[in-house]
Design goal:
CATH topology: Immunoglobulin-like
CATH architecture: Sandwich
Largest sheet: 5 strands, antiparallel
Order of helices and strands: HHEHEEHEEEEEHEEHEHE
Structural class: alpha+beta
Strand content: 25-35%
Oligomer: single chain
Helix content: 10-25%
Number of helices: 7
């Protein structure tokens, strides 16, 4: 490390290196991948293309009155929700659940910040945590299954000569693609008489792509020196699998989707991830964890 990466190795690091044995060098069978959304700020300008589709005038007392742009943006926020789609290492896109953008009450102001910590995977039957088990096949087997959730079978959509480990490395190098969508809220459910079974809730409107970015992850591939926990030194062994390796939460610029093919969006640099490609960009925080701990089982809904 000192010769190749110019990382100084002290006496403590040399002593800790003696704890590495054959079990730590074995190829892992799988890596748990966890993704966590945190929050989004200054997002209203992302909906400007949708606001421009609304009428900019209204008739009042037989006079045509102009509707300010800010009022049309507020109407879009109050009538819709925000969801995301993320690309996993195997190339599959996973859709998330949605969060409301604002209170429907016109007297309430549009928030400047939205908490995204409750976002999950949008499943056919129910939502599930943003947790994925990524199997690692052997080097010779490039047709393994990747990016699956526990108990789920999924065909690989990306392969590489070195197998799934190389696919994962390339994903970390290039970054995680994220797209943001606006969906119109469904109309309120019709009231039902007592004793009658309520009808299924009306669906949301079709998703409209409003923004996208690539979250840089390549910092995890850089050499670093970390301190071993005291428990590992006392037990004279390293944990298998290792403790979770967290990337972020990172603060990333989220520009409008019209900038999706811009070089600064598609090939972001770690140190410039917050660079504003557009003055209409939002700012959001997101984290990725390798060797993530499996989430606790969820209680069944009654």
């Amino acid at each position: 490390m000192q010769i190749l990466d110019d990382v100084q190795v002290g006496e403590a690091e040399a002593t800790d290196a003696q704890l590495v044995d054959a079990t730590n060098l074995d190829r892992p069978q799988q890596i748990n991948l966890g993704i966590s959304f945190v929050q989004i700020n200054t997002f209203k300008r992302l909906f400007l293309p949708l606001a421009k589709e609304l009428p900019d005038t209204v008739m009042q007392d037989e006079e045509e009155v102009h509707i300010p742009e800010e009022d049309r943006l507020a109407e879009i926020c109050r009538s819709g929700s925000l969801s995301f789609s993320i690309e996993l290492p195997d190339g599959r896109w996973v859709q998330t659940t949605s969060v409301p953008l604002a209170d429907e009450n016109p007297d309430e102001p549009i928030p400047e910040e939205i908490d995204l910590s409750g976002i999950r995977v949008q499943g056919e039957d129910k939502a599930s945590p943003l947790f994925f088990v990524y199997p690692l096949n052997s080097q010779a087997d490039t047709a393994g299954k990747t990016g699956t959730k526990p108990g789920e079978k999924s065909a690989t959509t990306k392969t590489a000569p070195g197998g799934d480990l190389v696919v994962l490395r390339d994903w970390l190098r290039s970054g995680m693609k994220v797209k943001a969508f606006w969906q119109k809220n469904p109309p309120p459910s019709e009231p039902v008489d007592e004793g009658e079974e309520p009808p299924p809730p009306p669906p949301f409107g079709p998703p409209r792509n409003i923004a996208g970015c690539v979250v840089p992850l390549n910092s995890i591939l850089r050499p670093s020196v970390c301190t071993l926990p005291e428990e590992a030194r006392q037990e004279k062994s390293l944990p298998v699998p290792p403790a979770p390796i967290n990337i972020g939460p990172s603060t990333v610029s989220l520009p409008p989707y019209s900038f999706w093919i811009e070089p600064d969006v598609q090939v972001p640099l770690c140190d410039l991830a917050t660079k504003n490609v557009s003055e209409d960009s939002a700012v959001f925080k997101i984290g990725v964890s390798l060797y993530a701990k499996e989430p606790p089982p969820e209680a069944e809904e009654e």
